[in-house]
Amino acid sequence: MSDITARYDDAAAGLATGAPGDFVALLKPRVMSLVIFTAFAGLVAAPGHLNPVLAFASLLAIAVGAGASGALNMWWDADIDAIMSRTRGRPIPSGRVAPREALAFGMVLSVFAVFTLGVAANWLAAGLLAFTIFFYAVVYTMWLKRWTPQNIVIGGAAGAFPPMIGWAAASGQISAASIALFCIIFFWTPPHFWALALFKQTDYGRAGVPMMPNVKGADHTRFLILAYSILLAPIALSPAFLGLEGKLYAGIAAISSAIMIYFAVKVYRTRQGKEADKAAGQLFGYSILHLFLLFAVIVAERGVGAVLGHLQ
Predict the structure, then answer these.
(1) Rounded to an integer, what distance in angstroms lies between the CA atom of residue 28 and that of residue 8?
(2) What is the chain's alpha carbon radius of gyration, rounded to the nearest angstrom?
(3) What is the pLDDT of residues 185-198, one digit of tens each?
(4) Is the dihedral of CA 163, 152, 127, 106 positive or negative?
């Protein structure tokens, strides 16, 4: 029996005593940071005004809700996390946190996050947050992830809700513009994660997760990555078409989308050896920058507009 397996068995038996840092790791801080950023973009882009203190409390609640989803995901996926090289160092498979501790931690944080958002902002935003937690922890983690190669496509909705939640927190409504922000992340998610799946194909296969390259093959996955990257381009421009953003956003979105498509074409055409893994890795890395740029410009344009409005 390996040392990792032994520590995981101890954790499953309730023998783990996690340090505070281990519980922070359960929250998936890197994912949480993206959630905070996109939710903030939705909040500042929305019409209406939210008191700065309540806005901070709302963002904190959204962040905690995202972290709760991460903890519940790690609780359910501890068995496959222990198999995959990318995830075997996580708190549960490494034996630092017991599964029941992670479950309790995630459930308590979920209730806290939804209630706090409802009180700080409104119950529409709180309801969207509750649905997001449920969708990620139950629909995606417990069902889609191990059942269909479309897991990332459908499950990507969970990661796409934060800007819509931020918008609802500030305005108390859902609009075409907030749906456009949702769609950007929704259609960004498949090429982003399929690029990762290409060079982590062996890991997913060992764990029995039906990622697209393992089920339909690498070449079919490359075609889908290119198709989704092309489809994402006009969707990335939609905030400008809807009047939510201006020429600066339109220009940066167009340039960044063209670069994203360039890397997707490179992935599609490079199919052998280390060069293929390198191409997938480049797309994976740039896709993160692409999403950051889109939402950073939204924040910047809205922030400058707010300052100019106060000066008038």
Answers:
(1) 19
(2) 20
(3) 999 999 999 999 99
(4) negative
> H/E/C letters for each residue in 13-51?
CCCCCCCHHHHHHHCCHHHHHHHHHHHHHHHHHCCCCCC
Average pLDDT, the chain: 90
Q: Could you give the 3-state DSSP secondary structure of residue 155?
A: helix
Cα angle: 83, vertex 92, 17; to 5 degrees: 145
User: Residue 191 has what DSSP assignment?
Assistant: H
Task: Name the band, by pLDDT with cuts 50, 70 and 90, for residue 104.
Answer: very high
Token pair for 132: 């997001």
> What one-character DSSP code corresponds to residue 248?
H
- The whole-angstrom separation of Cα 16 and Cα 18 is 6
Distance separating alpha carbons of residues 118 and 107, to the nearest angstrom: 17
The C-alpha torsion from 199 through 200 and 201 to 202, rounded to 10°, is 120
Residues 6+ apart with CB under 8 A from 180: 235, 238, 239, 242, 244
Instruction: For the chain, give every domain's residue range.
Output: 1-173, 175-312
| CA angle, 166 then 38 then 263, to 5° | 150
CATH of 1-173, one of 3.40.50.1580, 1.10.10.10, 3.40.50.620, 1.10.357.140: 1.10.357.140
172-218 tens-digit pLDDT = 999 999 999 999 999 999 999 999 999 888 888 888 999 999 999 99
Tokens of 298: 């939204």
Q: How far is CA 163 from CA 2, 122, 124, 288, 295, in A?
A: 43, 15, 13, 16, 9
Q: pTM for this structure?
A: 0.90
Which one-letter amino acid corresponds to residue 183? C
With a CB cutoff of 8 Å and minimum separation 6, the contacts of 199 are 276, 277, 280, 281, 284
